[in-house]
Design goal:
Layout: E1 3-6, H1 14-26, H2 33-46, E2 56-65, H3 66-74, E3 81-84, H4 101-104, H5 107-129, H6 135-138, E4 147-155, H7 156-166, H8 173-189, H9 191-199, H10 204-208
């Protein structure tokens, strides 16, 4: 499946940073890291979300399908931005692709799926090499199941909000896997990130105490 690489520009101690930024506006002592950390926790517990926007997250998402990355793009908030692998310049003669679990478990379906991907690759190569078609035009054949790579930049508040929807059992299966990968990668980045991922990256039902979905998975009782 895919891989998440956390870039060096990502805030190493997000809770401490939040406490420091809040302390500036509260006229507090921001030279003491312990006090900054406690102040940051207080901001989280009190729901003061604005300070979360100062926490920078930059990462590479590699090997996920173009389809799930298209969904990733829709979750805007704060100041996220991203760059995606080009279909104009990168050679996709041998593009890798994602096979959904439901297809992979069905022998005949998986065979037909892979044959179709092979046919698309062969046709792309033929258009470019035999017909002189520009790569940017031949690439129109590429499916949403092909693997891609992006460089992504966003903030803690956006990721926490995203977790409410994308850790839900009703979210698209690959997106749930990708978000879990992000949680693991950030948790390995620092102890503060591990705390945030474990306590604040949660599906909305765990935050609300009930499931607001019309079709519930049953993890939490539905709102009456």
């Amino acid at each position: 499946m895919g891989k998440v690489v956390i870039l060096e520009e990502t805030t190493r101690d997000p809770i401490t940073l939040m406490g420091s930024r809040a302390g500036i506006c509260w006229g507090s002592d921001i030279t003491d890291r312990d006090k900054n950390y406690k102040r940051g926790l207080d901001c989280l517990l009190s729901g003061h979300g604005r300070v979360m926007e100062y926490v920078n997250v930059e990462m590479v998402l590699d090997g996920y399908s173009a389809r799930v990355i298209r969904e990733w793009y829709t979750h805007l908030g704060g100041s996220p931005t991203r760059l995606q692998a080009s279909t104009r310049y990168i050679n996709y003669d041998q593009f890798a692709y994602v096979i959904p679990p439901a297809v992979e478990q069905h022998k005949e379906a998986c065979k037909r799926y892979q044959e179709m991907m092979d046919q698309i690759r062969e046709t792309c190569t033929y258009l470019e090499q035999s017909c002189g078609i520009k790569r940017e035009d031949a690439a129109m054949l590429l499916p949403l199941g092909m693997e891609t790579k992006i460089v992504d930049k966003r903030n803690l508040r956006n990721l926490m909000d995203m977790s409410r929807q994308r850790m839900c059992s009703r979210a698209y299966h690959e997106y749930r896997v990708m978000f879990d990968d992000i949680c693991r990668a950030l948790s390995a980045w620092s102890e503060e990130w591990a705390y945030l991922a474990g306590h604040y990256f949660l599906p909305k039902c765990q935050v609300l105490g009930y499931c607001p979905e019309t079709r519930s998975c049953g993890r939490m009782p539905q709102k009456q």
